[in-house]
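Forwarding these from the shared drive since the link keeps breaking.
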Amino acid sequence: MRPFPRLVATLLLAGCAAGVGAQGQVADGLKPRAVAAPHYGDTLYQFYQGRHFEALTGLMVSQHFGRVAPHDDEAEVLRGGMLLSYGLHDEASAVFARLIERQAPPSVRDRAWYFLARIRHQRGLNDQAEAALALILAPLHAALEEERRLLQAQLLLQREDYAGAAALLEPLKGSAGAGLYARFNLGVALVKSGDAEGGQALLDEVGQAPGADEEMRGLRDRANVALGFTALQDKKPREARAALQRVRLNAAQSNKALLGYGWAAAELNDPRLALVPWTELAQRPLSDAAVLEAQIAVPYALAEIGAFGQALDKYGQAVDAFAREREALAQTIAAVRGGALVRALMAGGQAGESESGLAAFAGVERLPELPHSGHLAPLLAGHAFQESYKNLRDLQFLQRNLGRWQGNLVSFADMLEARGRAYAERLPRVRAAAGAMDLPALVLRQAALQQDLDRALEHGHAAAFADARELALQQRIDSARAALRRAGDDPEAGAAAERLRRITGALAWQQARELPARSWQARKGLRESERTLAAAQARDAALLQAQRDEPARQARFAARIAALTAALVGLQPRIAALDAEVGRQMQEAVVAELEAQQQRLDVYAAQARLAMAQIHDRAQLARRSDGTFAK
């Protein structure tokens, strides 16, 4: 099977972000789209920066407060994908089920079930993986459909439904993308189902295919090894040699290939030829079972060609090597039981881990520095151990994160206390400033001004809108009238009165002309003052409400901080207990594997001693036949 994508959530999000055509198929290219919700944009930024833990927690907070609309479905897909990336397949399954209930696009739904099946298969939950695949209602887009078929075929192979797997893989064997994997798995399925000839033909085709990269070359080596050992089982040593000699000498499958090549030569009654690959294999590290077998295969071949002395020496060297290796395994077991393995793995994992979040697909990339750590390479490369390592690393990350959160809560408590002190200090000043402004009197003044304006407009009193210059002129006119009344019948008073009448008329005419503009300005000013008064009243009401609510609000914050602190304090022992349990399970799995290697060493040592005894018996019988021991 192909390696699992590093960012499941990215592909899920791509399925949601891409345009959907009339037939429901996702468009080939992703088109840039504007993000309408800033909080969702922040989540995407954190996600694409590789800070997945911050992206996940921030997204869940934003969803809680309803801040991601109109991207609700996309946000839920992204959340489900990130949960899935961390192996939380139950939680991701619940997310995808809710998406289906909300009538999410079929392409998004089917992608979600596919990736859920991949994670479940990765975790060894094959039945649940098949259940997820069964929920895919339409072919997936492009290469994902081939991946889905390969996964389904792998599940069928694992439950030994070889015929079903073969039927599923047959249409894929000519595919440009998944064809090589399909032909390899199809060949295995055909061999297992009884069609040895058809299966071997496919494996031979894969075994001779050009390898563009290391992945393809590794698959080609696996095909040749499978083909070679199948031929050995069918008593076809020449065909086995032809397949096994195509395996690269320094590849991961080379040990098995060298061992099988030697046995193929032995089947052809050519022990001298068998010595060549077995001698090369015997010089390699003893942590591989094929190398252990080569330790006794070499003296076996020497005995077959009659070199009994050399065979005895090699058997003796093998027994000594097995004893040393057993002691080395015992030292490694003691170190593992002492916790050195877990400490070394965690030290190596943290060095390359982002402090801002979990690395969902990080694995054991190098061997820990332990006594004879080469024994651990096959086990550490295994899928089950890698998953346990991820769980342990995630638990330790969460433990550190809880510690940081606990420190943050202490800071929040200090901030809340400072806020309470500031509130107590500022409240008297705010109350004093609010009391200095008589809002009810201002409201009455506003109403009186409005009435005056309405009356002036109703009766056309243009003089009510006079400016300062006009008011001063009106006062001079009034003074002049009083002076004329005091003058009585003075002849000059008549002419002055006429001039005063004209001036009064001119002033009235000017005021009447300015009345529309001035009345509009007056109405505008009153409206603005009304709005200002309304805002002042709203602020006053908000201030009064805040004075009533703020103490209770601060009390709620304090209670929330206390509850979260208690929750964090309660979680830390649980996580520590889980951490210890997962570490213990890892140690037990490693110890069990190393003890199994010790048992294999004991079996090989016993076989070597038995072979040595047989050689001695043959030598004694030969000497007796010569009369050497005759009485």
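-- next protein --
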Amino acid sequence: MEVKRDILWRVYLSYILVVIACVAIFGKAVYIQQVEGTKWRSMSDSLHQRIDEIEAERGTIYSEDGQMLSTSIPQFDIYIDFRVASLHEKNGKLFRENVDSLSFYLAKLFKDQTAAEYKTILVQGYKAEDGYFLLKKKISFREYDELRRFPLFKLGRYKSGLIANEKTIRLNPYQMLAFRTIGLARDSNKVGLEKTYDSLLKGRNGKQTVRSIAGGVGVPVDDTYLIEPETGKDIVSTIDVFIQDVTESALMKMMVQNDADNGCAIVMETKTGKIKAIANLGKKATGVYWEDLNYAISPSEPGSTFKLATMMALLEDKKVSLNQIITLENGAWRIAGQTVYDSEVHKENEVTVKHAFELSSNVAMAKMAVTHYSGNPNQFLKHLNKMRMDTVTGIDLVGERTPVIYKPGGRFWGPTTLPWMAFGYNLSVSPLQTALLYNAVANNGVILKPYLVSSVKEEGIVLKEFQPTVLDAKICSDATLALLRSCLEGVCTEGTAKSLFANSPYKVGGKTGTALVADGNKGYASKIYQSSFAGYFPAENPQYTCVVVIKNKPFAPVFYGASVAGPVFKEIADRLYSTYLRGTKTTLASNKKSDSIPFQYTGYKQDITYLSQQLKLNYKDSTGRADLWSSIQNNNAALVLQKKQINDKSMPLLKGMGLKDAIYLCEEMGLMVNIKGRGRVAEQSIVPGQMIARGQQIFLSLN
């Protein structure tokens, strides 16, 4: 029994000791995981290195007058690594001596906490030896530039523990101005020019070795890249900020006044096809208007502005003459069991073809189309094809939708299709296609492809220029054009737009339009009207073509084209006429002369900015950061300062540099320089972008 008791006692004691050991181990594991977890995870992460992809800086989109419409700016998240050895040497002397002054300057810069509050959080991070202490997120380059000069931080990253994670964000300085056309640059939701020219704008990403710290966030091991990121190309759009602002303001005013649903306005340079302004406004659920969709390239029933196409076909085929008399049937005409109505009651019933067009008579257009084309509707459709009304315009915007033109033999073709097409129903075309047609009439019959980008640049150097593209050299005969222009001018002097332009100091050729449009599945019962006005000015020498289309709310009390879209057109035309014809901007757009002496200077940024300031040169700084090397050039008489990327592994572009700067830069990279000539660098023997080695020779030719 004694032996058994002795054995059991030892077994129980061993069991208790094992249980105590297990509890201790479990408790220690919980303590390490919950209390010291951040510390050990941070230490574990810091032992790992990886190669991260470094996003290239996206190119800038400029307006034609040199304004930045969309650009990338740096943004910084600021962290502190409180584990750096220098902060803990001599019992933390460096930290203790600087924490008060650092807290004071942080409070002064950010103004979100007091100096005492900043000191408290800094001390807490220091005591916890936090390896990735978040100080501030999303600060600007100006704030970062100021912050790194603060006490402690000015000692540099390896002594102060300062970590700045840089990223770029896309900024539209003019916000809503042409927002939908310029577009967004989000990874999964690019639209507008940002999407169309994404391959040029995005550049080429680089690679860099980083050290993982807490949370798996990477901190660069050093300041060099395995592969240098290549900045995207810049594009210069045809948009003119002044014209865009005038267009958007005029459209917005009418949209608010009439509580309209959505609308767009397009201004095209008549002789080139350049889109100088394109405004798209839609009403949000909150009642606020915003550039939400590109209505300018979305087809809808155009209404009476399409009558120009019908009249062109009739005159070109010599089916009618302008002096021919036609009966308006007192504004109502029966055809195939349906009735064509004129939207307004006319006092006259027997009128000339020209005056019927000026009065915008649906009855007249339908009767003429049926009389002359019902036996051969394809003859009429061939004219629409010649006018390019059945295809997209080809503008450099992704998302342009195809128009809808019904054909004989199709399921939607019937006895009423042709007469309704004659006055802008039973078909869908976009406002931009309407602009294309009216611009062709204004431009002596030449159909020009509309475009939004005039050039592509890299570091201020033009890589590619886009010129006007002729889609059709002659849309119809000169005789027909003369008759059409007299009709369009007659609309503004004797027709539906007579009162609108009664006291105008310049002539306009244009056409009003009012179309009843369907409200989804509800059909036409909601009485939603689309108001439009299309035309050009000055009529004797057209410089601009403008189209305005506004979709009104249901049962809107004012909905006629002359009352809704017409005033928008007139306000735009008045502003451009007074600006470009009366001296504010000196001359017509077609007579603008760019600087005949283009220049580009490249060098040390501080020198360029100093000289520019001393010479009182008004320039736009698009560098966005404190780059050492920059270039300045005249861009359509506007000076633009752009950054010039330099690294010691590949050959930079030296063209435009002064000899002093070029020699300094080459010798810093270990190159042996041979010089020929005097002046600035004109040619270099090593191609820009080529990999270089120290001791390599380079030959520079000066101009």
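The first helix runs from residue 2 to 34. The chain is about 30% helix and 25% strand.

- D.
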